[in-house]
Amino acid sequence: QTPTPPTRLGLCAACHGASGHASMPGVPHLAGQRLDYLRDALKQYRDGRRNIPVMRAAIGPVSDAELDALARWYSVQSPQPQGQP
Amino acid sequence: QTPTPPTRLGLCAACHGASGHASMPGVPHLAGQRLDYLRDALKQYRDGRRNIPVMRAAIGPVSDAELDALARWYSVQSPQPQGQP
């Protein structure tokens, strides 16, 4: 049921990991997060309501359809990191 | 290693669940989220950088120490909902 990795996944994966398990300070895990929340947060980062320059730079040029594919991808990833019970 | 439930947990649990598994539309899961991210997000909600009235109302009166206890609590909850493998 996991969809095909979105075209723009690399943009997110650099910090959040391809499966949504972040290892950088201050960067949230995204794996298994609610889809509606991810969609809303992405819109807020893109329009500046959440004013985080690196996020705005990353997703500024990303289309609505691509953002949706990214949100869907992360929402269906397992919230448990691999290798942990 | 799970800490004692924070005094103000009920404030968060109403929407995010006591163990951080949200069931309300648009409300993020918090279980197992990175502690540094949770701390930062809470500060942004409290000072209005993330302008979400319900969050500002909820945590406006909460002290730094209490916010920290809440962030710690959710960061150590299991990201996998109970009853799922």
Short characterization:
The structure is a homodimer of 85-residue chains. Chain A has 85 residues and is mainly α.
Description:
The structure is a homodimer of 85-residue chains. Chain A has 85 residues and is an all-alpha fold. Chain A has a single domain, classed as Cytochrome Bc1 Complex, Chain D, domain 2. Chain A has four helices and no strands. The longest helix of chain A is centred in the middle third of the chain and has 13 residues, at 35-47. The radius of gyration of chain A is 12 Å and the shape is globular. The model of chain A has no long low-confidence stretch (mean pLDDT 92). The A-B interface holds A 22, 25-29, 31-34, 36-37, 40-41, 44, 49-51, 79-80 and B 22, 25-29, 31-34, 36-37, 40-41, 44, 49-51, 79-80.
